[in-house]
Every structure is written in C-alpha cells, then in structure tokens.
Amino acid sequence: MSGSLKRLAFGLVLSAALMGGGPSHAIGATITIACGAVGIFHDLCRAGAERWAAETGNAVEFVQSPGSTSDRLALFQQLLAAGAADIDVIEVDVIWPGILGRYFIDLGAYVDAATVAAHFPVFIENNTVDGELKALPWFSDVGLLYYRKDLLEAHGFSVPQTWAELAEAARAVVAAERASGSARMTGFVFQGKAYEGLTCNALEWIDSFGGGQILAEDGSVTVNNPKAVRALETVASWIGVIAPRGVLGYMEEDARGVFQSGNAVFMRNWPYAWALAQAPDSPVKDKVGVAPLPAGRPDGQHSGTLGGAGLAVSKYSPHPEIAADLVRYLASPPLQAERAIRGAINPTIPALYEDPEVLKAQPFLADLLPILEAAVARPSQIAGERYNQLSTIFWNVVHDTLAGRTTAETGLAAAERHLQRIRFRDGW
Prior knowledge:
Shape: globular
Strand content: 5-15%
CATH topology of the largest domain: D-Maltodextrin-Binding Protein, domain 2
CATH superfamily of the largest domain: Periplasmic binding protein-like II
Number of strands: 11
C-alpha cells in the first residue's frame, strides 16, 4: 500500500469510530457501512441505515469513503486483502464483483428468492460470481446529458443529437452569454480527471463514434481503431475551447458544481444530479433538461455508460446475518422508492419505474428505461480481476490525449500493446 493509501485507510477507519450512527452501548450488533460517497447518496444511505438500526435494536457506524471510485476500489482492495474486519457492508460498483467477489459472503444464503427476483435480471447476473450472489442491487445508473433549456431556447438551438451539434451550440451560446456579461460561462463540463469516471466518459465517446467497447466479447483488444481515434481527437479539440482546461481535474461533483452554479451550458453526469439541480436553492432550478448523450455522427448511436452499485457483506464481518439484513432493508422497494423520490437515484426494481409517487417526483424516470436498455457496459465481466489494470491504462491514455501530452493515435496504440501483454500474460 502506498503512503497516501495507508493514510487514507487509517483516516477512514478512524472516521468510522468518530461518525457512529448509534451509541456504543446499544443492545445488539454494531454494523459498520461504507456507502454513498457522492452528493446526496451518503445522506440517504445514512438515513435508511439509521432507521433500520432504530427498528432492529442494532447500531450503525459510517465510513465516509473517497469520492473517486478508483480510490474507493484501491482502499477496499487493501483492507479486504489484509483480512480487516473494520467494515461489514460495502457499496460495490457494478464493475467490482469480479474484482472483489472472493471477499464477500453469498447473499443468496440470507436473502429469499422473491427478493432477488424483484430486481433487474442484468444486475443480478452482474453481481453473481461462480454461482454466488456477491451483492444485492442498490441503484442503477447511466450517463446522461444535462442542458440549460432556457439558454438553448434563448439562442435558437435545439437539444443536440450529435457531438458536433453540441460543440456548435456550446460555442455560440458561450460567446453570446459572455458578451452580455456572463464572464464565467463555459460550454461543456464532464468527468475528465484520470480515474474511473473518465473511463465511463471516454467509453461513451468512443462507442458513440462506432469505435467499440475496448474489448470484444471474445476478449480481443479492439480499442485501437480509426473511429476511436476520431472520438478522442474530437474531445481533445474541445479542451480550452468549449470545455475549460480545469475539466481535466473534474469528478462528478466538480462538474455539477460548475453546471448548477449556472456557469455551463451542457454537462455529462449521472441521474443523481437532477434532484440537486431542481432543489429549491439551486440557481438553475426549472432551467435544466435531460437527454441521452449525443451520437458521434448523424446516423450513430447514443451511448451512455451503464453504472450503478450493489451492497455486499464482507466475509470478515463478525455479524454476517445481521449485516445481510441491513443490505436487504436498504435495497428494498420502499427504500429504493424513497431514494428515487428524494435523490433521483434510479431503482434496480423495474416495478418502481411505474410507481405513481416516484414518477410524480421524478417524471424523467419514465423515459429512462430505453436509455438504460441501450447503455454500454464496461468490459469488467470480460476482464474480470484484470479490469482495474485495463481501466487504469485506458483512462491514463485518454487523459494524456486530452491534456495534449500525446496524440489519440499514439496513445491508443500504446494502450493496445499494454492490454495485449496483460491478456496473453495473465489472461482474461
């Protein structure tokens, strides 16, 4: 473990002791949970877990995990590999079951079949490793385009269907807004930092240009192709033009902060940002629209990366049955409906997409199913335990390309060579 990760691990374990959700003398078990690292996610997770504790007589303690999925994965890998029992319940990104599954209990032994069957089959399949259910689905996600509908209307633009249309609208609207006094206005913000979020964004760009999904279904490396090169060249041309250079350090909350403050025309983000943009104190309340991400060409596809998370129980937990009960509670229909209503967090239970109260609060969810069904998956199932290596190589090449340190052609060729070596040396 690097020095920074050691400090991070120590800090998180310490925070679990300092952020306890219940008294140390509470009757029953104390379950420590790491969940909801971004935006409203943590608040809603905390509220649900504390309600469970009050109902069951147990106690909960919370670990505030890093905002970056890459940092969270590195931390949990180190803690679990060391056999640490500091965390009982862990929020598991959709790409982690193949990476961390050996450290989790089989929830199939603790959760009834009807509860499991209520979720989208694709998430159950994703979370099943060697016949064992390693995580119960908690929320689904997909990359979306947020846009200022008031600005597009004022300057005569419709919702962009292609990236070229987005770039054209962004340039024109920014020029007009700056001329009228909005000096901080920028065109497009997204997750450009070198971490897993950039892999999600770059996969959307490349797939929308017809450049594939990094690996083919047979495991062959396909990322180095002319369409992928064109996609990255296109995005690199935006940096310092329609996207601020600072976007190369943005994660989800950084992009949302700029957009929600009223200083961006377009934003790529996950659905959670909708409820925050519509909050009573939001400067852009009622001025925001949501749409599928643009296609790379007029006849191309709209590609949003499939995301989401489940809840898993560490095999080192001293209270696996009680921890599994907390997981079942948090992933239940009432709690998923509450998170959808309060936080625009997508359910993993299909029936909730027809729930009147959910749709009244978040009407855009009615249109989200087709976007979810067309979502592009990261090749985590194909790469398995090697996925993190694959993604790190990919996002670093993309980041270097956007920063101007290499060309898309040179970077993707280098990525292909590295990935081929991993494939033939270690296999996936």
